[in-house]
Amino acid sequence: MTVIRIFVVIASAALAACSSSAPTGRLQLTAPTPLSAVYSEVNMQLSLVTEANTHTPCFGHECELNREFEHRVLRVGTRLAQAAFAIHPELHEHIDKFEFIIAEKSSPGSLSNSAGSVVIFRGVQQLQLGEEALAFLIAREMGHIIAHHHEENSATSMLFSVLAAVFIPVTNLLSGSAAVAQTASASAMSTAATSAASFIGSKITIASYKADQSREADGIALDLLVKLGWNKYILANSLVSQTKFVNDDNWSKDFLGSAQTIASLAATFNSITGLKANRDDNGNILVTVEMSMHLDNLPARFTTDEPPRIVFDFDNTTNNLGKSVQSFAEMNLLSSNIVQTAQRTRLVLNLERTRSFDTRIDGKRLLISLQDNVAGMAILSDASNIIKTDPVLKQPVLQ
Prior knowledge:
The protein is of the alpha+beta class. The protein has helices at residues 2-16, 33-49, 61-87, 131-146, 149-174, 178-181, 184-208, 210-227, 232-242, 250-266, 374-382, and strands spanning 99-103, 110-112, 117-121, 270-279, 285-291, 300-304, 309-315, 317-319, 325-327, 333-340, 344-351, 357-362, 365-370, 387-389, 396-398. The chain starts with a helix and ends with a strand. It has two domains: 2-151 and 211-265, no CATH class; 270-374, Immunoglobulin-like (Sandwich). 27% of the residues are buried.
């Protein structure tokens, strides 16, 4: 009965921590933070023990390369940590900081634990990853921490351990083996059976949601890198080109899978879903472009004077308005044209006269504020009798 009470206490504690904190809304069974911290640290150390060490110590130029790599990891990791706490302020409830460690392991690899430790193997240095790929590798491990994957794995392992400890002895009793169970040999066999059942059960269960965890970590990593100003399309291309080293080991295959996931996410097309214009509080014309997804960066833009237009080029974007031409009732904004190609959509705002403008991103909206330059245009109009445009130099010249 004592064992069953322990099981009830641990199971209740773990179930109390059940949450949908995964980025995809996937329901997770997470262990309490103190238990998970110990459990995930033990698992990480056991994993490190099984990896072959590098030859030590280093000599001459090799030491300089090692220090340079360590500085790169720390520099990139520090920036990513700042982005992580900015995007996920709730992180402060679980960890105080991220710690970035280089493990002297000869094979490429990476690990992390629920306490915020990110371990990069020395073998990664030999891959000569570019800045984007190295940053993604670090951010991916941070993604596992942010998404509480270590707490989820710890809860699964602990519950299977308790279940095996409770139900295997009960099965022995029910099968009439009470007398045999009193012997040392039977005790050893029972312990072995309990450990085996716990290990196999937890491994099968963890493997069943590993793909979900990988996608979640990859998505979080992409968000962190975009937050720091990386272009997701350039990042995807860099990852794909730098994962051609893939070997037969599980880590290399996982890294390749992550590269393919990021390529898929980067190739996801945005679309223009709404377009309207009205007056803002300052009396300026405010054009609102509604998008299906968040914009990472401002679209490329330029103006023309004859005729007066403002042009925006949206990469990897489609037109989902159901029309390509739209008229407006706002003064000076005449109409819009949208032209779509295979990889780009161009939005053209046709104006009555040239105006300056400001643009900014507001979530899934691009806001374009057309500035009122009436005063400036009046001054030019008054001086039109003495200012003309040279047809050759295309410059204003005094007559």
